[in-house]
């Protein structure tokens, strides 16, 4: 077994939001057990946003993440891009079949955004309008294309960015898993991965109310789990109109597993070693012994024939065991897709700090107005540390403390009877 915590820091959170009766989002991650498995399949992360009446959307997203998590790691005979698409197509078939079998589930579907971190880079598969981003230094990039009416019309040059809010609905998606027996799946990457990179997967419950530059700045200021919480809190402060699901993955060092067992190093041996047919081993053994016996009895012609047979058998065994090693042949890292599709700079600066301070003040005012029970002494402790960081021009540290203060209040609010969803006091 391998441990990746020293080089791969992760955070994940799924929240119902403030306006939904149930959470139709799902997420999963499949971390490679060993270095060898990472080289073959990588680390898989996935979010899905279900659609459908009753519990149909919830079921669709759950079927999607379960099917992909189960199927993708097993497809060792396919290169990762093909295996990932095959797994998503299998998920589509399962969801479609369940929808056709039950009137309550008819037409149910789900978005799907999957990220695989491989030796060749970051590979993505996309259906729908959930998203994958990469933060590198202060550059925030959207790596996936939204399968939405807005994005499709913009790609066809039928509208411009200024037209978005005028007449094109933003919540109409053009592609999803489940409603149809066939679906087209986008593949992106592999994108180079560097130490310090942070990847984000999210549903539109985050990307709708929170701007890209805000997401990127928060990712750069907080560790993954705290960043996930801060992003969910901010989406809820903006009204929480939808379910919110976030996965954050930060590459903190070279992706080399630390062994947690007493066995041999998982990285040793062929990358995709397979069992050799027993008849080949028998042929190799008989040929080798026959060559030795013939040589002892001075039957040189027979010895030569047996030696050639042993060599051929050995070559067959080697090819069968090692010849399908995809990292050097079947998947050479050739680029797929056209991403990234948008970029923005997101520095932790004085301007964003004051934006965070304004949010904190609005939250404090709402708490006083609604008479929320908050431990203000602890709340003020976060603000004192933020002020100290600001005085030393550590804007990232100051921003982080303000979002910790927000998270502290939101956590206390969640433990009270009224989350403010009916009064709208959290729509800041």
Structure, explained:
- This protein has 3 domains: 220 residues, 4-Layer Sandwich (Phosphatase 2c, domain 1), CATH 3.60.40.10; 47 residues; 65 residues.
- 43% of the residues lie in helices and 18% in strands.
- The chain contains 13 helices and 14 strands.
- The strands form 3 sheets. The protein has a 6-stranded antiparallel β-sheet with strand order 2-12-11-8-9-14. Strands 3, 4, 5, 6, 7 and 10 form a 6-stranded antiparallel β-sheet that branches. A two-stranded antiparallel ribbon has the order 1-13.
- The chain is elongated.
- The two termini are 46 Å apart.
Overview features:
alpha+beta; 3 domains; Phosphatase 2c, domain 1; single chain; 428 residues; elongated; 14 strands; six-stranded antiparallel beta sheet
Strand order within the widest beta sheet: 2-12-11-8-9-14
| Residues in helices, as a percent range | 40-55%
Low-confidence stretches: 262-273, 323-329, 419-425
Q: Number of folding domains?
A: 3
Nearest-integer average pLDDT: 87
CATH superfamily of the largest domain: PPM-type phosphatase domain
């Amino acid at each position: 077994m391998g441990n990746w915590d020293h080089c791969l820091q992760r955070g994940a959170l799924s929240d119902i939001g403030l306006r939904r009766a149930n959470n139709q989002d799902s997420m999963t991650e499949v971390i490679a057990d060993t270095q060898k498995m990472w080289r073959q399949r990588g680390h898989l992360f996935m979010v899905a946003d279900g659609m459908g009446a009753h519990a149909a959307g919830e079921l669709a997203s759950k079927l999607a993440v379960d099917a992909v998590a189960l199927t993708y790691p097993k497809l060792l005979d396919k290169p990762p891009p093909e295996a990932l698409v095959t797994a998503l197509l299998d998920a589509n078939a399962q969801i479609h079949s369940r929808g056709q079998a039950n009137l309550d589930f008819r037409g149910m579907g789900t978005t799907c955004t999957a990220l695989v971190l491989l030796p060749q880079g970051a590979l993505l598969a996309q259906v729908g309008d959930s998203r994958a981003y990469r933060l590198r230094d202060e550059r925030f990039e959207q790596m996936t294309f939204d399968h939405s009416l807005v994005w499709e019309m913009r790609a066809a040059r039928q509208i411009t960015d200024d037209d978005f809010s005028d007449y094109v609905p933003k919540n109409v998606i053009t592609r999803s898993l489940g409603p149809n027996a066939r679906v087209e799946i986008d593949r992106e990457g592999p994108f180079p991965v560097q130490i310090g990179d942070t990847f984000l997967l999210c549903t539109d419950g985050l990307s709708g109310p929170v701007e890209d530059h805000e997401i990127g700045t928060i990712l750069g200021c907080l560790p993954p789990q705290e960043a996930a919480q801060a992003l969910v809190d901010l989406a809820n402060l903006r009204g929480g109109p939808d379910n919110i699901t976030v996965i954050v993955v930060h590459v903190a060092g070279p992706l080399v597993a630390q062994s947690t067992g007493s066995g041999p190093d998982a990285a040793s041996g062929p990358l995709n070693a397979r069992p050799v047919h027993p008849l080949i081993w028998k042929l190799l053994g008989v040929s080798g012994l026959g060559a030795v016996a013939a040589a002892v009895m001075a039957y040189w012609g027979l010895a030569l024939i047996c030696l050639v047979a042993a060599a051929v058998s050995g070559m067959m065994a080697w090819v069968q065991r090692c010849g399908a090693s995809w990292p050097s042949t079947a998947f050479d890292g050739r680029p797929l897709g056209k991403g990234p599709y948008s970029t923005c700079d997101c520095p932790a600066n004085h301007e964003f700090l004051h934006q965070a301070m304004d949010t904190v003040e609005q939250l404090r005012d709402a708490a006083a107005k609604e008479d929320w029970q908050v431990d203000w002494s602890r709340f003020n402790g976060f603000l004192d540390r933020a002020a100290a960081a600001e005085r030393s021009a550590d804007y990232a540290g100051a921003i982080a403390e303000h979002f910790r203060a927000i998270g502290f209040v939101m956590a206390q609010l969640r433990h009270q009877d009224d989350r403010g969803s009916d009064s709208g006091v959290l729509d800041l």
